Amino acid sequence: MRNYWDYIKVEELLSLQGGFDNDESKLSNDEVVFIVVHQVYELWFKLILRELETARDLFRQNPVPDMKLANAATSLRRVVALFEQAVPHFRVMETLTTRDYLDFRDRLIPASGFQSAQMREIEILLGLDDNLRIPLGREGSYMAALRSSDGSASPALARVEHRRESGPSFKTVLYDWLSRTPIDGPATQESAERFARAFIAGHEKEIENRIRLAKQNALTPDDIARLEQRYRAEIKFAERFLQAEDEEGLDDEARAFRRRLRAAIVFLESYRELPRLAWPREVIDLVIAVEQQMIIWRQRHARMVERVIGRRTGTGGSAGVDYLDQTALRYRIFNDLWAVRTILLRKPSVPLLSHEDEYRFRVED
Ligand code: HEM
Ligand SMILES: N[C@@H](CC(=O)c1ccccc1NC=O)C(=O)O
C-alpha cells in the first residue's frame, strides 16, 4: 500500500544527522542544528540546480521557441523563490551562540562549506568566470579544496567535474540567444548598430537636458561643474558600453557580438510593452533577480558567520568573513544585464522604431 513514509523516505532521512560518526546520540542539539541547516540548504541547492538546468537547456536551442519563454520564466521565478526562502534560513543558525558552536567547531577542521559541491555547481551552471575566483588561501584552486585530505578524488569533486563538462553555462546560451535578437528589423549587425547609434543620440539629448536642469537648480558654480562632469561621464559610458569599447582585448568578432548583445538588452528593456518583447524582457529581469538573490545569500551567510565566529580564520583555511565579503562583492556573472540599467531612458526619449508592427502579436495561422 502506498504511504507517506515510503514516498518521503522519512526513516532514511531522519537517520542522516549523525555527523562524522553517524551517531546522533553523541551530538548536542546545537550540532544537530548545524548539520540539519546545512542539509536543508543542500536540498534547496538541488532544486535550484534542477530549475537552472531546465532553463539552460531551453536556451540551448537555436532558435529558442518563443512559446517556451514562459516555461523559462517559471523556472527562474522558482529559483528566486528558493533563494528568498533560503536566505532567512540562516536565522536558525544564529540561535547558536559563539560558545555553543566552539564546543564542536574544532572537530570540523578542515571541513568547510567551501566544499559544498552544489554551490560550486550553481556558480558554474550560471557561468561564474573562474578568473574572478578569490583563492581560499590554502589550495591552488577551488577544485583542489574538493579533494580528500590525502589528495584523492571525492564525490564532491566528481560532481563538480561532471557539471563543468555537462554543457555550456546558462550565461553562454542566454547571451547567444540575446545576440540573435531582431532589433527594429532583421537580426543583423547593421540593424543592431544602427539602433545603438540612435539610442546613444537619445541618451545624449536626455543627459544634456538634465545638465540644463542641474544648472538651474545647483547651489554653487562648483556644484554645477561637478554635476556636469558626472553627467558627461554618463554619456561617455553609454557610448563606450554600446560600442563595446569598455572591454580590452576583444577581437572584431567578439566586439561585434558584445555590441549585438548590449543593443539587444537595451532594445528589450526599452520597448517591453510590445507584445513579442514582453516575455524576453521578463526573462532578463528574472535573471537579474536570480543574481541579486545569490549576492544577498552570500551577504547573509557572511553576516551570520560574523555573528557566530567573528573575524577568525575559517576552518577551510580562508580569512573567514574577510574572504566571504570579497566573494559577495566580486562574484558577478551578468554584468551586461546589470549595466544596461545605468543608461536606460524615459519612454519619450527612446528612438522611434521603423518596424514596430513586427513586434506586435502575430496571429499564428
Ligand atoms: C555557523 C555556521 C557557519 C559558519 C561559521 C560558516 C563559516 C564559513 C567560512 C569561514 C567560510 C569561508 C571558507 C572557510 O574558511 O571555511 C565559509 C564558506 C562557505 N560556507 Fe559557510 N559557514 C556556516 C554555515 C554555512 C551554511 C549553513 C552553509 C550552507 C550551505 C554554508 C555554505 C558555505 C559555502 C557555500 C561556502 C563557500 C563560499 C564561497 O567560497 O564563496 N555555510 N563558511
Ligand atoms: N567554515 C566554518 C565551518 C563550517 O561552517 C562548516 C564546517 C563543516 C561543514 C560545513 C560548514 N559550513 C560552512 O562552511 C567555520 O570556519 O567555522
UniProtKB/TrEMBL annotation:
EC number(s) given by UniProt: 1.13.11.11
Superkingdom field: Bacteria
InterPro entries: Trp/Indoleamine_2_3_dOase-like (IPR037217), Trp_2_3_dOase (IPR004981)
Residues that hold substrate according to the record: F34, I35, V36, V37, H38, Y101, R105, T315
Tagged with keyword Cell wall biogenesis/degradation: no
Cofactor: heme
SUPFAM superfamilies per UniProt: Indolic compounds 2,3-dioxygenase-like
Catalytic activity field: L-tryptophan + O2 = N-formyl-L-kynurenine
Record's keyword terms, sorted: Dioxygenase, Heme, Iron, Metal-binding, Oxidoreductase, Tryptophan catabolism
Broad EC category: oxidoreductase
Recorded metabolic or biological pathway in which this protein acts: Amino-acid degradation; L-tryptophan degradation via kynurenine pathway; L-kynurenine from L-tryptophan: step 1/2
Protein residues bound to heme: H301
Record note on cofactor: Binds 1 heme group per subunit.
Protein function: Heme-dependent dioxygenase that catalyzes the oxidative cleavage of the L-tryptophan (L-Trp) pyrrole ring and converts L-tryptophan to N-formyl-L-kynurenine. Catalyzes the oxidative cleavage of the indole moiety.
Subunit field text: Homotetramer.
Family the entry assigns: Belongs to the tryptophan 2,3-dioxygenase family.
Protein name, as recorded: Tryptophan 2,3-dioxygenase
Organism expressing this protein natively: Polyangium sorediatum
Lineage, highest ranks first: Bacteria, Pseudomonadati, Myxococcota, Polyangia, Polyangiales
